[in-house]
Amino acid sequence: MTTVARDPVTAADPEPPPTKPAAGPSRHRFRAAVGFAFGAALLFAVAPLMLSDFRLSLLAKYLCVAMVAVGIGLAWGRGGMLALGQGVFFGLGGYAMAMHLKLADAGPGNMPDFMLLYGQLDELPLWWRPFASPWFALPATVLLPMAVAFVLGSLVFRRRVRGAYFAILSQALAAAMVILLIGQQGTTGGTNGLTDIQGFFGYDLDDPVNQRMVYFIIAGTLLALLALTRHLMQSRYGELLVAVRDSEERVRFLGYDPATVKLVAYVVAAGMAGLAGALFVPAVGIISPALIGIVPSIEFVIGVAIGGRATLLGPVLGAVAVAWARTALSERFPGTWTYLQGLLFVVVVAFLPGGLASLIGLARRRDREPADADPPAGLFARLRRRREAA
Amino acid sequence: MTVLIGQLFTGVSIGAVLLLIALGLALTFGQMGVINMAHGEFIMAGAYTTYVLQQTISAAGWSLLVALPVAFVVAGAMGVLLEFLLIRRLYARPLDTLLVTWGVSLILQQLARDIFGSPNVQTRAPDLLTGNIALPGGITVANNRLFILALAASAVVALTVALRVTPLGRRIRAVVQNRDLAAVSGIATARVDRMTFFIGSGLAGIAGVALTLLGPIGPTMGTNLIIDAFLVVVVGGIGQLKGTVIVAFALGVLQASGEYLTTLSVAKVMVFIAIVAFLQWRPQGMFTLRTRSLA
């Protein structure tokens, strides 16, 4: 192993230099509020006015990917957990929503069309039945992924399986889920997935007005998730998460349990991915194994890496940019896009690990924390003092 | 009883394939700690090498024999190139290595698509390897499975001997156990890294040759193999080979019996659950090099 780790016990942790009063918390909060209002105006006023219905529905799809990216930014950028299997949670949310919508399309007492087509079943399978009720299906889109993440995360983090091991396990989970979905074709739709979804709680999804409504729901959800994530990152928990990323053992020696800290971020990220999957279904009208397997799961990560993994907005902008570039390029030059995607992985991760946000950070170093730097000055000293005071 | 032994052999032959594809990783990931997602594409390179050689040497038996060393060198050279250009800059950042090599694997897949076309291609197996052997007790064993088993066994033996006996093997072990001490003792650790990577990637090429006997060759074949290969090494524990060998066969038998009792897809999920459960018991894998590091 060539990892040149600083000795966690003796490494000097400088006390924070006295901060300038100019960059106080109130100024930060004011700037965040302005940014938030600007983003809301962009998403709710400018985009719907400027874009055609087709482009707007594409944007809705990209914003779903961005929701997954926000979660990955939290888990990977802030928590150091490279979650390569977020497609699983995206898929769980998507399938939960699609199952409900399929059942609603079919009408009470009927079976979804594809089950009749394959003709292997006489009646609805038992585990499909609860999804007929929106009161079960809607919470399930978020809670089901969170539950799976909780089980896997608590098993894995408590035993201190981490780094590459965790990444590979999370990727294997995506592989296992896809194989399971394809294998159970009679009840899951197999490779085709759940397609041809018509209605969304009584609204016809073919109607452009209703597509617009779906877009507004997605944009609003993304903004809410961003606000939640900002709150988490700024909180004491957010500091602890960064500390765990940078030196898990030191945090353990200070008396915290790193496993719990990581678990929270992983479960929150899974919930965001589930919500994204659930909203993806009415926006695009399909959920299938090809959207949630190993390859799409790792593609969620590239946008985060490009935008800046440890920042709040970087993952969102990166994910939207990558998804947009993908549509624009792969329509015309399918092969070129794969090369470009590969090159992006190589160049950005190897030579610009902070993502594009670190370029902005370089320009505005004075009033901004570096995008993906070493632990902020005095982080561990601060945690220690808090611990002693408690 | 016959069924049981038949299933056992199926399991062992799945295990032999797993072992072949994981052996190179046991060296690059296990010994050096490098996560090379392009390893699957090196396997693909080995498979396509076999295909190209068969276009020139039409006798299937000879082309297969020639393909083994050629694929080793082709895949090994690709590995050295990757190590030299990218990986050596990233030794301190294992997770980033994972993403970078994933990007490389995307590029290699597209290259394969552009050179050989998207549809799968097929090689002819030599006549000697197409039949079955009937063992006493009414068990039939496919010749090609037997060949792969023999190939996997000889690869393990050759690698073990190389690591134990040769001067290069001694240097590799020294670098794995204590890089700094090896460096001050006069070992050129960077060159040892490169040689380790050459051998590990070359083994992927050999695995690729073996896989041409079992199925078609396609640009995405590597993606499907890489996860299985990593799981074998993770569960086997890093730093030595015996864990990889044991776990490859154990997972093979587990999957074969799972497939026999249920279906392929359920068996895959069972294997995943078994792995997570196993890591509860031994989070560092089956065998580990004991070190004093905290991480």
TrEMBL record, chain A:
Record region (Disordered): 1-26
Record keywords, A-Z: Cell membrane, Membrane, Transmembrane, Transmembrane helix
Keyword tRNA-binding: no
Coiled coil: none
Membrane topology: Multi-pass membrane protein
GO cellular component terms, semicolon-separated: plasma membrane
One matching Pfam family: BPD_transp_2
Chain ranges passing through the membrane: 30-50, 56-76, 83-101, 135-157, 164-183, 213-232, 253-273, 279-298, 310-327, 339-362
Localization terms from the record: Cell membrane
UniProt protein name: Urea transport system permease protein
UniProtKB/TrEMBL annotation, chain B:
One example of a Gene Ontology biological process annotation: amino acid transport
Keywords: Amino-acid transport, Cell membrane, Membrane, Transmembrane, Transmembrane helix, Transport
Protein name: Urea transport system permease protein
Coiled-coil positions: none
InterPro entries linked: ABC_transp_permease (IPR001851), ABC_UrtB_bac (IPR017779), BCAA_transport_permease (IPR052157)
GO MF annotation, one: transmembrane transporter activity
Source taxonomy: Bacteria, Bacillati, Actinomycetota, Actinomycetes, Micromonosporales
GO CC, one annotated term: plasma membrane
